[in-house]
């Protein structure tokens, strides 16, 4: 029988982007399942709501610039000795977080992958493989993520969620959402996006106001999670909302252009990816260097509809 002294504490410095955070959270959840050690997450402020809704772990906030004025972080430093700190962030500023934490060992994503292969990003493997390697557990097929259960928002239950924006520029924006709405004439839609997506989302909403509700920039990420949980399907560019759908376990169709459909595939068996697979993609560029965004423009409405119909069959 384990004594209280056998139980150790580990800290995990989490990525700052929503999509990467959710992949990392799935890996930390698997790590916790095979260990009795306590795990405390160190996260950026904008992820606090996501962590509260989706995660069973205790967490404290430290911003992306490594500043430590936040009381909870200072208390964490003062009161805890960690066996290991796993740094799954790529922010160089987090090295300053390392210097504050009292720990026996630090394992850094950037340092470990540079030591292993000389490169941090490999488009031929899923991001969860890197996180699993750093956390010292076997990689798991992202299809095998079981999803989680959260309450659905009854006001939007059964609607199709559209997410036409992205944080990474035009190479991830599919241009045919208006045509898609017309094709799916029997569906009601709710549009999700943040403040950066307002212009894109506003163009879709007036076309069919009785069927399309635009919530872009109007709701919290927590409410978005509950809307997604009750949706019939999420159709999205490579965005945090798409990965949120995968983490929850909702049926989704991800439209990929410049980003890798292998490395950034959403979690879960109900996640589906559509990809034009032209010669220059995935380039992971925010601005197209020569082919006029063909990675997205060649992704026709008809092809996306075919995928949606196959999922409904």
Write the layout of secondary structure elements.
Blueprint lengths: L8 E5 L4 H16 L4 E6 L4 H7 L3 E4 L9 H9 L2 E6 L7 H6 L2 E6 H9 L9 H9 L24 E4 L13 H7 L5 E3 L6 H7 L7 E3 L6 H9 L3 E5 L2 H9 L3 E5 L14 E5 L18 H4 L3 H12 L1
Parallel strand pairs: 1-2, 1-4, 2-3, 4-5, 6-7, 6-9, 7-8, 9-10, 10-11
Helix pairs in contact: 1-6, 1-10, 9-10
Could you please describe the fold and organization of this structure?
With 313 residues, this protein is an alpha/beta fold. It has helices spanning 18-33, 48-54, 71-79, 95-100, 109-117, 127-135, 177-183, 198-204, 221-229, 240-248, 294-297, 301-312, and strands at 9-13, 38-43, 58-61, 82-87, 103-108, 160-163, 189-191, 212-214, 233-237, 252-256, 271-275. The strands form 2 sheets. The protein has a 6-stranded parallel beta sheet, sandwiched between helices. A 5-stranded parallel beta sheet has the order 3-2-1-4-5. 41% of the residues are buried. Residues 1-5 have low confidence and may be disordered.
